Amino acid sequence: MDWALVFNFVNLLAMTAWTALILLPRWPALLSAILYLGVGLLCLVYACGLIGVVSGLIPNPGGGGADFTTILGIRSIFASDGGVTIGWTHYLAFDLFAGLWIARDADAKGVSRFLQAPILLATFLAGPIGLGIWLIAREPAARRQGRFR
Fold first, then answer.
1. What does the DSSP 8-state code read for residue 78?
2. What does pTM read for this prediction?
3. Which end of the chain is more exposed for a tag (fewer CB within 10 A), N or C?
């Protein structure tokens, strides 16, 4: 398995989806494409990679067993190109999903795209930071609408 090829593919896929989410008009078809062709495809790559490596169907030279209970076990999982690629794909999928939720939620609350852009960029670069910023920023917009959801 050429993990570098998979790594480059998931990076390009995520970058394309994030660029579209931040810069393009939010047509329903575009949002669906980001959800299914972006997040969904990243989830599929992740699942196939994880199942393939754990089952032994995909060779992962240098990778240790899947021990999620210790720091040493986690370090050994990420000690191979396969482990890094699978883990990175996991981050990309969840961050993109969070970004898509932020964009839809912000649009529904009437938050300008100009204000959304730095929050989405923070989510792209450091997922939980951007999500945390949005959770703080969304509260006043939700209260202006007279509901909090």
1. T
2. 0.89
3. C
